[in-house]
Amino acid sequence: MSRKPLASLQSNRSNTQRQQQQQPVSLARRLLFPSLPNNDLPLLLVCPVPPELNTELYDFIALALRAFVNPWWTKITRYDKEFLPDITRILTVVVRALEERVLATDFSSVICRDIPVILTQHYIDYRNASSKVATAYAAGGALSIDQLFHQFQPHMALSPDGQIDRVYVRQILDHILRVCLPPEDFEPEAERLIVREILLKIVVKDVIPKIVQPWFIQKTILDLLGPQSRSAGSIVSPESPPSSQSGQVFSFHTILIVFLSAIQSISGACLALIHTYKQAVNTIKLVNQSPPKSFHPSSSHSSLKSTPSSSPVLPETNLSSSLSRAPSESSSTSSLAKAPLFPSDHPALPFVPTNQNEHHHEYYAHGPILVISEIFSMHERYASSVIITTISMLASFFTSFLDRLLPYLLDNMLSPALLLSIVRIGKRTLFPNGYPAPPPVDPTPEEQAEIHAKLLAWRGTGGLSYLTPILLGSDPSVALKSAIDPLTSTSCNVHLIMMILDRVIIALFPELGGAGPGEVLI
């Protein structure tokens, strides 16, 4: 009697072990955590995230290490199985350090206030530079538009032809590694230099030269805009019914179908309006319940390690006031580029102590309205000028509400679901079959011209196609060309990317701008 339960227990154990052996072991489990007793991967992020995001992040890391580290490491030794797990341990520490800084950063101010100001100033300086080409301001026509633009926005890391100074980027990467890496991994110079040069190559040689190409920016804009609508001249009229049917009188059945279709369309529109109204009311309630944003550094940022004596100082200024001067003056970034590389040799930029009892309105809606008005030159046309002025007046009237609404929408947009989608898209793009995809071929000049022509011919879809002539004038192609031209110079685009990159880095690492705990740069 006692042997049967023992035999059944042993059979159950063997079935469980067999089922566990039959379950496929993930790539991350085999490469990154070979000593784990089960298939459950440890958490990569500190904040609670969906399990599928944790799995996708580890899968992406495993694919990257297998593609870019394993090939040359196996040539050195084929028996060391601890190298990739050790890299994973270091990456986990770095990712968590960056996660802490991202959560402590107010990206609402960066995205809604600073980046629109940088974009607006880029358009102003480019148009000023283009107006001075072949004039006495351009040394009698000897200076190109890239050189003139560099005079408006000189940057310590850029040459007039848009070449990036690697020393500048190395200093920034050194500070990021110092802050994020554990001391035992940062102190070995060989390990630190290898990691730094790999990151330097990715940023300076792979990423920035690609995204500053005019065709790449134009293609990205087309992808974001979606499919184009047919122009008025290319609209295909529906085929006319045969002559035998055109003379037929409408029957009662036809009239009934038209009547019921109209009722269905009206009811569908009413249901959509009701749903939109309920969603808007719910959003307004949530926004009103959310606390107002104030421009103060987070307490977690104040507690982060700051090493100003060995950190490069990035250009920083009060970007909100950079547009208050005359357009003919050089931009705010012209004085920023003269900032010292090391604060030990020169005094740091001025800062103002933060008053914790005083709330400063961010005016988040002002920056996006300003950049849209400048990009499309809306004040040069009467109808668009009236529309943008009315929108500005309404935004000023609802300033307190918009200062709550825009950060609320941004927080909902920057969610774990968005990060999961980005990781999956990146994995499918970089590793379509589990291995690196061949590098994409740049489009030919004819294909680039076709991309440019498609962007000029864009008129929107739906109701937007009827508003396009009102907003952009009788010939929208002229306004679209004026909006695209400031992004057609690779050298000027490098200036724009570096300005935005500087602002994002300072947001994540405020000590690079010379600010101490509880202090804000102006």
From TrEMBL:
Segments of skewed composition (Low complexity): 10-21, 292-336
Region annotation Disordered: where it falls in the sequence: 1-21, 292-338
Gene Ontology MF term list: phosphatidylinositol binding
SMART domains in alphabetical order: PXA (SM00313)
Domain PXA: 50-229
InterPro entries to which the protein is assigned, alphabetical: Phox_assoc
UniProt cross-references to Pfam families, sorted A to Z: PXA (PF02194)
Domain of life: Eukaryota
Protein name as it appears in the record: PXA domain-containing protein
Higher taxonomy: Eukaryota, Fungi, Dikarya, Basidiomycota, Agaricomycotina
